[in-house]
Specification:
Blueprint lengths: L2 H22 L20 H5 L4 H11 L2 E5 L5 E5 L2 H10 L4 E2 L2 H11 L8 H12 L4 H27 L7 H18 L13 H14 L8 H4 L5 H10 L3 H29 L2 H4 L9 H11 L8 H32 L1 H15 L7 H5 L2 H13 L5 E6 L3 E10 L5 E7 L4 E5 H5 L2 H4 L17 H6 L9
Parallel strand pairs: 2-7
Antiparallel strand pairs: 1-2, 3-4, 4-7, 5-6
Helix pairs in contact: 7-8, 8-15, 9-12, 12-15, 15-18
Length: 471
């Protein structure tokens, strides 16, 4: 069968499935307000995922509040939540009810294999048991000297550019290079040499180019859950190889490169461990890198709990991919804001200089004691979170309460929303972090000082979930 007929057939199956779902389940979004669908085919998908989509997201909370109706492919009705109580309910209270969407899961499985983001239930708990053991404070303390050395290399790279007479320095690019090198050395025990711009690395380049390439597939990604169930893996591979699409072939090649180098990194770490602790301590990562700790913890685990080699490779590539863009994005945003607010920059420098006077480096605990630095980090992540939004699918019917009621299409206030089984929801992280009703009238301003003062009662009561405590 020609590839275009196969794609058309798959699309027809997907549409039939969505239509049947709409007929079989009464929409719980009937009374919810929201932006009009921009297209009968793609709904609001383009508006939500555009590189300049922030203003569209902010418009949702300004006009409709913390819960609104948006549209996916072929009019699929979804619920956009940015209400603090709703988010707490979704990501904490009812966490097991809201799983990653099928599209997200299948894309991750096809890209990385059986990693933390693609397995559920007992398999997820087994992997988490191994991984949790290596991300302890004790292990993180041991990584500080490695990160300190890399920060010196990063500063040297900036200084070289200035000495070369460059009027402008691309801090986003340098931040990405620094993030990748940190993840390589402290995470994988593998040097990418990313801060040396005269060198290139196929592994890190594949990670950097993967998401932009996948994004070009657009609505076709929605077909992944159906495609992934057709035939065997070799058959699907052969079909992909026959598709005359430059984007599809680029994505395939990038996945192949990540898989190849993931196995190479694993083998090099295994060889280093086998060489003995004395030799291992002289290599990149000094035997304290996360990959070495993972392999040691895996070897010490019971046979039934151990990760297979393919599972380890899956974690390697997922770790590198997930942490590189998020880390570099946060760093570059922090640099941008520090440049815009020289008073904040001066105060932060003063705190760091005072703490490091007469010292070569700060310890893990001393870094944690830099209160203003923490305030700068928290405020940067508040305004510029690693992701603007993420999606989940309800595995059963559930009712989500709202901290601040929203007005329905019938003009009545809604204080809780029913989410039907298999319905997709969108969690508006950036909107929740900029909601003036919770954060106050200065919600859109970058003000690190807010974290060193009593927080508004509205924020305390909202109890927004997050990695950094808000109170």
């Amino acid at each position: 069968m020609p590839y275009y007929l196969a794609v058309a057939s798959i699309a027809a199956l997907w549409i039939a499935r969505r239509v049947w779902g709409a007929i079989a389940v009464k929409s719980p979004t009937k009374n919810l307000s929201g932006p009009a669908s921009a297209s009968w085919l793609t709904g609001n998908i383009t508006q939500l995922n555009d590189p300049d989509a922030l203003e569209f997201h902010y418009g949702i909370v300004r006009e409709y509040g913390g819960a609104a109706k948006v549209y996916g492919l072929f009019g699929d009705e979804q619920i956009y939540f940015s209400d603090a109580l709703a988010l707490r309910h979704i990501v904490i209270t009812e966490q097991s009810t809201f799983r990653e969407t099928e599209v997200f899961t299948e894309l991750n499985r096809l890209t990385f294999g059986d990693a933390m983001t693609t397995v559920h239930g007992a398999e997820h708990r087994r992997q988490r048991k191994i991984l949790n053991s290596i991300f302890s404070a004790t292990h993180m303390r041991a990584l500080v000297p490695i990160i300190h050395d890399l920060s010196d290399q990063f500063a040297d790279a900036v200084e070289r550019k200035m000495q070369n007479g460059e009027a402008q320095v691309n801090m986003l690019d340098l931040s990405y290079r620094a993030a990748v090198e940190s993840l390589g050395q402290a995470g994988l025990g593998y040097p990418f040499h990313s801060l040396d711009e005269s060198r290139s690395n196929a592994y890190s380049d594949s990670v950097k180019n993967f998401f932009p390439s996948v994004s070009k597939l657009g609505p076709l990604l929605a077909l992944l859950p159906v495609v992934a169930k057709i035939g065997s893996a070799p058959f699907r591979r052969r079909v992909v190889e026959l598709i005359p699409s430059k984007t599809v072939q680029t994505v395939k090649d990038l996945i192949d490169i990540m898989d190849y180098y993931g196995h190479e990194v694993l083998q090099k770490r295994k060889d280093a461990i086998a060489s003995g602790q004395e030799i291992l301590s002289e290599k990149v990562g000094r035997g304290k890198d996360i990959m070495t700790l993972l392999l040691q913890a895996n070897q010490s685990a019971s046979v039934t709990d151990r990760l297979s080699e393919r599972e380890v490779v899956a974690q390697i590539n997922l770790f590198l991919f997930a942490a590189s863009d998020t880390t570099s994005g946060a760093l570059s945003r922090a640099f941008e804001q520090l440049a815009r607010y020289p008073d904040v920059q001066d105060r932060l420098r003063e705190e760091i200089v005072e703490a490091t006077t007469g010292r070569e480096a700060l310890s893990y605990d001393e870094l944690n004691g830099l209160k203003y630095l923490h305030a700068v980090v928290k405020e940067t992540l508040r305004l510029y979170p690693p992701t603007v939004k993420f999606e989940r699918t309800a595995s059963q019917d559930v009712t989500i309460p709202l901290h601040i009621p929203v007005k329905g299409t019938d003009e009545q206030m809604i204080s809780q929303i029913h989410v039907a089984k298999n319905q997709n929801i969108i969690i508006g992280v950036a909107n929740c972090n900029r909601d003036a009703r919770v954060w106050g009238n200065d919600a859109t301003e970058w003000k690190p000082q807010r974290w060193l003062e009593p927080l508004p009662q509205s924020l305390v009561e909202a109890r927004i979930p997050g990695i950094f405590p808000n109170v």
